[in-house]
Structures are given as C-alpha cells and as structure tokens.
Amino acid sequence: MADMFSPKQRSEIMSKVKGRENKATELRLIRVFREFGIRGWRRRAKVFGKPDFIFPAARLAVFVDGCFWHGCPIHGSLPISNRTFWVRKLSRNKLRDRVVRRKLKSLGWSVLRIWQHELHEPAKVAHRVSKLLFRYSAMLKGRKERSRTNRGHYTQLGLRK
C-alpha cells in the first residue's frame, strides 16, 4: 500500500514525533511514580545513553520504549511502504539499546526497560521499579552492617582502619 501522504507531508508529520516528554510513555511513567509514591528519580540526567529516568542513589537507569520505535515483540510492526528503510532504522534502534545496556552495566548501573504497552498496568510497572530499588536498599543495608561489623572488629583489636 502506497503512503497516502507526499514525501514532504510525511517528513513534516514525522518531524513532530517527539523524542522526549511523550504523553504515552514518559509522562505516563511520571504519573505511575507519583501514584505509587516512588521517589528519588531524576530526568534529563547526563548519563550515557540518555535514560528517560534515573535513580542516582540506586544507580538505576530507566528507559520507556515505544512499541513501534524499539521493536516490541508483541506490538512492534513494520510499515509496508519504504520497508527497507524501516528494517534498517528499527534494527539500529535495537542495536543501540543493547550497546547502551552493556555500557551502563559496565559502569555499575542497573538498567530497566519498560515497554509502552506495559504502562497500561501501572501496578505491575511500579512493582518492577520498586523491586529493583528494594534490592539496592537491601544491598546498601548489608554493606552498612558489614562496615559496622568490620569497624568493631578493628577497634576490638586496637587497630585503626
């Protein structure tokens, strides 16, 4: 099926697709965070890969991926017109997502990717985010307890750490 718009009209339409502050993704996730009392997040942080949200204390990067643009296995589809272009474009997006994930992990960040369609079940999304934040707080608590124990051990021996 041929595109119903001229190349100039299609270009104008596509230029209006926003990369940030999309109502279906980022702004929807902000509502989920607020509704479920999830705190500590930041936006527009200068972190590799430009995550949509970060939780700096937990070193958690959150990406909200549109089903079309990132090739959702459930809802992703390829336009019929200009198919070669879209195959290459969406493949590059997926590759970039994998590269960003690896790099962030190597820098000590946890990465959470949320599909646009998952935002229709806000409680599940909130649970996934909370679970990762809870793991971080449990890990941090364990570190503090170990450091207290180690400090006590050194002082009992009369040594300074």
Give the tags.
161 residues, mainly alpha, three-stranded mixed beta sheet
Structure write-up:
It contains 4 helices and 3 strands, in the order H-H-E-E-H-E-H. A 3-stranded mixed sheet has the order 1-2-3, sandwiched between helices. The longest helix is centred in the last third of the chain and has 35 residues. It is elongated. The protein is mainly α and 161 residues long. It has one domain: Endonuclease, Chain A (3-Layer(aba) Sandwich). The protein starts with 6 loop residues before the first helix and ends in a 5-residue tail after the last helix. A hairpin with a 4-residue loop joins strand 1 and strand 2.
What order do the helices and strands come in, and which of them pair?
Layout: H1 7-15, H2 26-35, E1 53-55, E2 60-65, H3 83-106, E3 110-115, H4 122-156
Parallel strand pairs: 2-3
Antiparallel strand pairs: 1-2
Q: Which term fits the overall shape?
A: elongated
Question: How far is it from the N-terminal to the C-terminal residue, by CA?
Answer: 73 Å
What pattern of helices and strands is seen along the backbone?
HHEEHEH
Average predicted confidence as pLDDT: 81
- Integer count of domains: 1
Write out the CATH superfamily name. VSR Endonuclease
Structural class comes to mainly alpha
For the largest beta sheet, what order do the strands appear in spatially? 1-2-3
Low-confidence stretches: 148-161
Count of DSSP strands: 3
CATH class: Alpha Beta
The proportion of strand residues reads 5-15%
